[in-house]
Amino acid sequence: MAGILRMLASLLLVVSLGGGFGSAERILMNALLGEGSHFLCAAAMAERLVEKGHNITFFISNAYAHRTTDAKYANLFDFEVFRHPIPVEEVHKQFNAFNERAFEPASAQMLTLAEVMRDGRATDCDAILGDKDMMDRLAMANYSLVVYDIGWVCPILMARKLGIPYVGVSAVSTPCTITEGVGAVQSPAFVPEIFSGLPNTMNFMDRVVNTISYVFVRLFGIYFRQPYDRLKEKYNISPGEDVQYLFDQSDLFLVNSDFSVEFPCSLPPNVIPVGGLTTKPAVALTDELEDFMHSSGEHGVIVCTMGTYFTSVPPDVVKTFIDAFARLPQKVIFQLRSIPSGITLPPNVMALPWLPQNDLLGHEKTRAFLYQGGNNGFYEALYHAVPIVVIPIHGDQYDTGAKVASHGIGITIDKGLLSETRIFEALKDVTTNSTYAHTVGRLSAMFRDRPTTPAERAAFWIDHVIFHGGKQYQLPLVHMDFIKRNLIDVLGFLVGCLMLGLFITLFAVRLLFKLLLTAWRTLNHKDKQE
User: How far apart are CA 68 and CA 72, in angstroms?
Assistant: First the structure.
């Protein structure tokens, strides 16, 4: 029944938009395991592709199989669910580790990243590639394209094994760092390295830190890809080509960035900025939320969330937030999975396990957004022109903090210096100083002044690649080996020519000197004889 409803919905959308029935293609889409901000970005693009008449199958894990029964998506998409080789409870525990180590040092977070996103997902990939029934089923489906999240290499190996072209999607920002291998200019002198939290105008020490980060990220990338290189060999996928080369061969890269707020850098033609994939006009809130928003009066409401994987934080941290909120004249909507025992919410605070974030940010009563720095939230706040207070927890959230501070659209708080007073003063500043509202309003107008939405732009380019291919947009750089790419052979040739020229010159000078010396001796000998 669900399949029939999906078909009818697709047909109605195609007819209403004037699409042709012959243009429908089957697309396999992956957004890591199928949860969080990465899935929301992919789903936004997928909805537009369905509108174009395509059939979308999401490749997700059984740990997040609730997507298959979510009414919002079940009637639009098909699902291919793979099984983890470990119980789903263990998978949830792996991702909960991000929450548990949220306020720990960066070294502990990097260890978690390696455990969860490298080792854990490589084990999943081994099980997927070894599942003959599923791989045969995917082969029989005749997909035209694989759209994958660049945070997981496995869909690339699947696409290569199935002989299907593939397009990469980055849910995080910093496009030059992500796509440097395909020709993006990435100079540590002026392009901040991913996860560095640096602005693009750097002093000497910033450039030192950025250069060290530049080297570290590339070494970590080699380490991160090692298990997948072994899997590639194990399943005889693209012999003689390493995983980095396969990544660079993606027909297209869609990056969740927009240069209205992103630090500038040069991009090759096959890297398309589609920043703000989840941005859209707000829709009506529930009666309960609407009543709470309007009860705030002229002071308005502050929206606070620590993200998908940080909806429960240590009790002492929760108390720090609550105590700061109690001092504010505004009302606060705080995303909390549960309220720790011993903590009583003040009258101006409402706690909920889930928030309709975009709709709250678009509400007329919203005055500020306090959150951890996720890329989706950044663009949603920008879209709705809401000043930001950001507390970066890990990864690219530090980069969001740098952009918020550099553009003057809010305040960044160091999580290591978090206190009730800092939270209170930051929120007081962004809600009373009109400079923040004016600046974010100006950048919001710049961001929204586009002929299409980000999701529509992403869907257009996916559609374009399906019918025309994407190889023509690749720089020749991706087909060059290390020696050619870095002009080592040319430098060797030029050095050889220089050395040969010097040798010939020295030989000629030496020969001329000998001739002159011989002539002088001959003349001198004649003079003596005379």
Answer: 10
Neighbours of 503 (CB within 10 A): 10
SS3 content of the chain, % helix, strand, coil (to 5): 55, 10, 35
Residue 154 identity? C
Torsion region of 34: left, alpha or beta (phi above 0 gives left; psi -120 to 50 gives alpha):
left
- Looking from the CA of 212 toward its CB, the CA atoms found within 13 Å total 7
Buried/exposed code over 304-315 (b: 16+ C-beta within 10 A; e: otherwise) = bbbbbbbbbbee
Helix/strand number for the chain, H first, E second: 21, 13
List, in sequence order, the alpha helices (H) in 83-203: 88-100, 106-113, 121-129, 132-140, 154-162, 175-178
pLDDT digit string (tens) for 104-120?
766 667 777 777 888 88
**Which of 481, 413, 395, 503 lies closest to 173 in space, CA to CA?**
395
DSSP string, 321-351: HHHHHHT-SSEEEEE-SSPPTT----TTEEE
In this predicted structure, what is the pLDDT of residue 478? 85
Residue 75 DSSP SS3: coil
Tell me the Ramachandran region of residue 400: left when phi exceeds 0, alpha when psi lies from -120 to 50, beta otherwise: alpha
Rounded Cα–Cα distance for residues 431 and 323 (Å) = 18
Check: CB of residue 404 under 8 Å from CB of residue 372. Answer: no
For residue 55, give Cα distances in angstroms to 14, 69, 137, 207, 456: 11, 18, 16, 47, 16
Distance in angstroms (rounded) separating the CA atoms of residues 252 and 274: 12
pTM exceeds 0.90 for this model: no
Confidence at residue 312, expressed as pLDDT on a 0 to 100 scale: 54
Q: Which two tokens stand for residue 516?
A: 């002159």
What would the mean pLDDT of 285-290 be, rounded to a whole number? 96
Which residues 6+ apart lie within 8 Å of 247 measured at CB? 150, 153, 156, 168, 181
Rounded to whole angstroms, the Cα distance separating 116 from 397 reads 18
| CA nearest to 129, candidates 166, 161, 165 | 161
Structure tokens that stand for 203 in this block: 């002093």
For the stretch 56-102, pLDDT in tens is: 999 999 999 999 999 889 999 999 999 999 999 999 888 877 777 77
Provide the 8-state DSSP code for 263: P
Q: What is the dihedral of CA 402, 30, 32, 358, to 10 degrees?
A: 50
Indicate if the pLDDT at residue 224 is higher than 60.
yes
- Secondary structure E strands in 96-160: 145-149
First to last CA, the chain: 123
> Quick check: 148 and 155 in contact, CB under 8 A?
yes
Which has the closest alpha carbon to 178: 132, 227, 244? Answer: 244
Cα 331 from Cα 59, distance rounded (Å): 40
Give strand ranges (E) for 23-86: 26-30, 55-61, 78-82
Q: How far is CA 211 from the centre of its chain?
A: 21
Beta strands of 311-452 (E only): which ranges?
A: 331-335, 349-352, 366-371, 388-390, 410-412
